[in-house]
Amino acid sequence: MSVVVTLAALACGCADAGPTGPAGAAQTIHIDTNTPQGLRARQVMDMLNSDWPIGPTGIRTLAAPKIADDVGVTMDKIWWDRPFTVTGLDVGAGHATLHVLTSYQVGQTIELRTNDEGLVDRFKVSLVEPVIKSWKDIDAEISKTGAKYSYQVSKVDDGKCDLVAGTNTDLSLPLASIFKLYVLLAVSESIKAGTVSWDDQLTVTKEGKLVGAAGLDEVPNGSTVSVRTAAQQMISASDNMATDLLIQRVGHGAVERALVAAGHHDPASMTPFPTTHELFSVGWGKPNLRDQWQKVSASSTGRAQLFEQTNTRPYDPDPARTHTPASDIGAEWYGSAADICRVHAALQASAVGAAAPVKQILSAIPGIDLDRAKWPYIGAKGGNLPGDLTFSWYAVDRTGQPYVVSFQLNWPKFRSQTAAAWLLSIVHQTFDLVPVG
Fold this sequence. Notes:
Elements: E1 2-5, H1 36-48, H2 56-60, H3 65-79, E2 85-92, E3 95-101, E4 107-114, E5 120-127, H4 135-143, E6 148-157, E7 160-167, E8 173-174, H5 180-193, E9 201-203, E10 224-226, H6 227-236, H7 240-250, H8 252-261, H9 276-284, H10 290-296, H11 300-310, E11 334-335, H12 337-350, H13 357-363, E12 377-380, E13 383-385, E14 388-396, E15 402-410, H14 417-433
Parallel strand pairs: 1-5
Antiparallel strand pairs: 2-3, 3-4, 4-5, 6-7, 6-15, 8-11, 9-10, 12-14, 13-14, 14-15
Helix pairs in contact: 5-7, 5-8, 5-12, 6-7, 9-11, 10-11
């Protein structure tokens, strides 16, 4: 007896799925309940389409005790993508397969098997990967989801980006954690200027961990980590505390200069450059600062004053808004696909001399499984915030030709790990379209 989960994700995000109709509102195919497998298939859909969160009481009536916890975790993860539409149903002896679409039109299959007691003893959710054969297929697949989006494939020659294919490449959209590339560029330039050393020590604190310390959470409070370690964790684990420690070490001004040096289309829009503590406090912290942000965010002075206010207290996440996007009020880091290409190119150009480790920092976790004989170097940075999903790569092919590939998707609601798995399946096929020599 087992639960199999085939959803993949590179990052975690949270947002309110918003109101939906009553359970079964998205049902388009009748599910007979005169067999145990049919009854459980209907129960799964009713639970997924209900506004009541997935809980242990309901799961105990659905799944055998040995797999109840795993089924609950799996259903809770995808519940955020409601309402689901049933597009097909296969029923056999003791088993059923549901073919469904998420609220943003991504296909999945839900396979279940029932035991002699009529409870589910096998449960598997799988992604139906889209088929990408051309550039226009990328647009067709993403457009179906209702996301605001951009994507690009650009060739990099002498530090300049030449577009191979893309859509909305000059549209400014949320960067999520791709913004950390600008922090890394500021570190790189500071290293070469001699104002910062890779061996400089940064102090880990309990308060700093409150914004998320994926790579450094086990480091004891009050101990130190090097700039080199913090930079690696910022990129590889998207560690927010490490990011803030680096911004504090190089100074906000250094990151703002990095925006200019990398050719960001509107550096003033991210001046002062916010730490994760500052922006998270505005978007998801207590007290609720969203109304204040909307009143003052049009000016750099107003933003600076509000950020200064957040720094008077530790970050305290508000459970009521943890799952609510903040990009609808502009509380995010912003940039275009063209900006992403330029900052990747700038980082590679900067990674010389004392700053040479930058190339290793970017490529330690490639974030995608590609043929390394075809793509011997892959630098990566992606991100995920409520409603925002982003990926980017600086990849060098076997002939030595660099490319930048990036995707930015923005929705008004939370999307589960399914969205990341679905987009990565598109990305894999996008790389297959790149004209490698």
